[in-house]
Specification:
alpha/beta, Glutaredoxin, five-stranded mixed β-sheet, 5 helices, 7 strands, 41% helix
Length: 171
């Protein structure tokens, strides 16, 4: 009698775990909302991520001294040219030290490399909002959909991944 009771208990336990496991496997993925920011552009004007609601935004954290960041610039220029009319906005957030790399240098850099997208200056808040307590690896690109949800995070130079993520959101 005790053996039958134990056997029934074990069967019920296994069935319950199976149901629990099945429901865990069907978890719903929720993309996080991209943190809004207010950062200065190279002219000193404040730009906010929320100004671009309704567009697909590629937010690129980069620096002028970073070789992989420089390698990604031609691809970002091409993406901006190819998809601007379909609602793509590329924003480069420069992680260059404000004291060592003034806006005049960034403007000259932008002209030299024919950068056709917005460049903003970072602050500690945006770093905390997007990277937490971790030091950011650069380049890091966040692909943000039209509803301001982060859909992809691409770390390092990977132009195919960035293009694919952008194309998927632009239809």
């Amino acid at each position: 009698m005790l053996f039958v009771s134990l056997k029934k208990t074990l069967i019920c336990l296994v069935a319950a775990l199976g149901i629990l496991g099945a429901s865990c496997g069907q978890e719903h993925r929720t993309d996080p909302t991209a943190p809004d920011f207010a950062l200065p552009d190279l002219s000193g004007e404040t730009r906010r991520l929320s100004d671009y609601t309704g567009n697909v935004v590629l937010l690129d954290f980069w620096a002028t001294w970073c070789p992989p960041c420089r390698m990604s610039i031609p691809e970002l220029i091409k993406l901006q040219n190819d998809y601007r009319d379909r609602g793509l906005v590329i924003i480069g957030v420069s992680l260059d030290d404000h004291r060592q790399v003034p806006n005049a240098y960034l403007k000259a850099f932008r002209e030299k490399f024919n950068i056709n997208y917005e460049i903003l200056r970072y602050d500690n808040r945006i770093l905390g909002d997007y990277f937490g307590a971790q030091a950011p690896a650069i380049p890091t690109m966040f692909v943000i959909d039209r509803e301001m949800k982060i859909r992809e995070k691409v770390v390092g130079f990977d132009p195919h991944a960035v293009r694919k993520a952008v194309q998927g959101l632009l239809g």
